[in-house]
Amino acid sequence: MxxxxxxxxxxxxxxxxxxxIDAALTQFRRExxxxxxxxxxxxxxxxxxxxxxxxxxxxxxxxxxAEALAEVRPGLLTVSESSERTTGSPSLSEAAALAxxxxxxxxxxxxxxxxxxxxxxxxEEELTE
Length: 129
Known about the structure:
The chain has 5 helices and 6 strands. By secondary structure, it is an alpha/beta fold. The two termini are 18 Å apart.
């Protein structure tokens, strides 16, 4: 199970979201079929690009509240002052992915930036390296 966490500027397209997801999957040698859900902050509930991307992938979209985002803060790999100012999280994509993936989840690596979208991948799988 992989949860793709998404952070973005307002009004991004579903193509931009899917491009960011594909970039993260490529970086971590994973495939679209491994994604079980998308996740983002609750404040992004009206972002059509994220909604359409989840529909295109055929996976549920989870909106993570501020409290859950704060709980996973120690597990984040990236700190962005811009993200902190606009979303309240130093990395919305990483925090959303971790929170939605559940207790014991880990990031595959730092978020990937593609244009105005960030994507982080989280899993509950054990490290096999």
